[in-house]
């Protein structure tokens, strides 16, 4: 039967010497492997973190743009809502005034009311009266040198149109020469009227200048008398428009408190 020999002393010493070296080698291999693995994992992790950061930055940019668009849309919507509300108010004011006419220059006396009634009989024969003394403007205004406009409500829009159309019948009548008849306008309509009047005056001036230059070229010499006549006509029309504008500014600087 074979026998197992015990290791020799030399072999034991070799084993004792080899084990620490082996342990050191294994430790180094494990450390290198772990370091390489950690380095790889760290790089992947950092790359993923960087990608997430970039996506977050992109999302923030998109969010900022969306918020800007929302603010813009909200602002535009608010402006539209405000404009619609103002338009509704304006249309409501116009509806309140749709059957009204205004007599300007009517004295604030009983005789003035009688004069207004006589005017209504001329421009609207079907008018039955009486005329309530409804004035446009502040009764406590500082400047009372001119009477406030008298507001008259017709029975229908058709009667109002008839009255305005028949205002030509007042022409040449001395008892009515200081009184004019107008539509009852809102502030916006007054401003539109002023703008249109200014535009008409500008076109008239331009046409007169063009006509004068054309005649000057055709005749070879200026025509002072003709030019003076043209400018005199323009001046009279401008004074008429200016008078109406002054009346608007004087009496209708604020919305009438009787019918808002």
UniProtKB/TrEMBL annotation:
Biased composition (Polar residues): 188-199
Region (Disordered): 188-229
Biased composition (Low complexity): 200-209
Name of the protein described by the UniProt record: Uncharacterized protein
């Amino acid at each position: 039967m074979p026998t197992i020999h015990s290791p020799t002393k030399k072999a034991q010493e070799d084993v004792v010497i080899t084990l620490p070296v082996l342990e050191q080698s294994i430790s180094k291999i494990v450390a290198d492997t772990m370091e390489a693995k950690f380095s790889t994992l760290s790089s992947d992790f950092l790359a993923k973190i960087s990608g997430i950061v970039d996506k977050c930055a992109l999302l923030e940019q998109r969010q900022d743009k969306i918020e800007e668009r929302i603010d813009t849309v909200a602002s535009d919507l608010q402006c539209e809502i405000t404009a619609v509300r103002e338009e509704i108010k304006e249309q409501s004011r116009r509806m309140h005034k749709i059957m009204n006419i205004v007599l300007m220059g009517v004295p604030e006396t009983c005789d003035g009311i009688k004069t207004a009634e006589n005017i209504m009989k001329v421009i609207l024969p079907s008018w039955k009266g009486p005329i309530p003394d409804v004035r446009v403007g502040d009764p406590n205004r500082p400047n009372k040198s001119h009477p406030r406009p008298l507001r008259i409500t017709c029975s229908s829009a058709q009667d109002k149109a008839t009255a305005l159309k028949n205002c030509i019948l007042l022409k040449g009548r001395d008892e009515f020469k200081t009184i004019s008849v107008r539509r009852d306008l809102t502030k916006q309509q007054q401003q539109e009227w002023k703008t249109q009047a200014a535009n008409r005056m500008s076109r008239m001036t331009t046409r007169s200048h063009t006509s004068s230059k054309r005649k000057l070229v055709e005749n070879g010499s200026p025509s002072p008398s003709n030019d003076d006549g043209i400018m005199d006509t323009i001046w009279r029309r401008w004074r008429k428009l200016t008078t109406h504008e002054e009346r608007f500014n004087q009496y209708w600087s604020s919305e009438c408190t009787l019918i808002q």
